[in-house]
Amino acid sequence: AVATVLMLVQTGAAQDRAAPPRPSGHLERAQAAFGAGRYAEALEESRRAADAAPTSVRALTARAGMAEFMGEFEEARTFYGKASALAPNDPQVIYRTASYAVRVGEYDRALGLLDRLLALHPSSVRWLFRWAPGFLQPWLLREHPSLDHIVQIEIDILTEKGDLERARKLARGYRIVRS
């Protein structure tokens, strides 16, 4: 019985050491501050969250997003990079990083990230996304939200480059807007 208790205590202590710190309190405060329009405070809380849990993809992405929002683009790049290194196939991280790349004018990088995001889907979904008729696209985008993100970013890139006609055509092709 004593051996069992010692084993449980040691296992619990090892789990305490192995468990990463939780950034949730800081993230909740960051979200509340952001919602209240206290953006500098939200950035500070998201920084604390990422510092408290440097292996939390959620905390790193929150810090990157707040830094991006506040115009701290190098900080955003750094923390999107850290989140990407920890979760290279996380669709949300890829999407957010691609969105950031568009914002800073790195269109080719954004398109490469969109290709990675699309590659996470089964080949049948990829085929339908690129070749299915327009009437199927709304259903496909609803069933696979990351595909909607791809279309939105492609439209953003075309708009940023001033190619409004191609942006309209793409939006109509995926039935995002009606003709």
In short:
The chain is mostly helical and 179 residues long. It has helices at residues 2-18, 24-35, 39-52, 57-69, 73-86, 91-103, 107-119, 123-131, 137-143, 145-160, 164-173. The model is unreliable at 1-19 (pLDDT under 50).
Please estimate the helix content.
over 70%
What value does the Rg take, in angstroms?
A: 21 Å
What's the total helix number? 11
Q: Ends: how far apart?
A: 75 Å
Low-confidence stretches: 1-19
Mean pLDDT across the residues is 87
Main structural class: mainly alpha
Strand percentage, roughly?
under 5%
What's the order of the H and E elements? HHHHHHHHHHH
User: Sheet bearing the most strands, described?
Assistant: none
Q: How many strand units?
A: 0
Please tell me what the overall shape is.
Answer: elongated
Task: List the defining traits of the structure above.
179 residues, mainly alpha
Question: How would you portray this structure in words?
Answer:
By secondary structure, the protein is mostly helical. Helix content is 77%, strand content 0%. The protein contains 11 helices and no strands. It has helices at 2-18, 24-35, 39-52, 57-69, 73-86, 91-103, 107-119, 123-131, 137-143, 145-160, 164-173. Helix 3 (39-52) runs antiparallel to helix 4 and helix 10 (145-160) packs antiparallel against helix 11. The longest helix is centred in the N-terminal third of the chain and has 17 residues, at 2-18. Residues 1-19 have low confidence and may be disordered.
Question: How does the SSE layout of this entry go?
Answer:
Elements: H1 2-18, H2 24-35, H3 39-52, H4 57-69, H5 73-86, H6 91-103, H7 107-119, H8 123-131, H9 137-143, H10 145-160, H11 164-173
Helix pairs in contact: 2-3, 3-4, 4-5, 5-6, 6-7, 6-10, 7-10, 9-10, 10-11
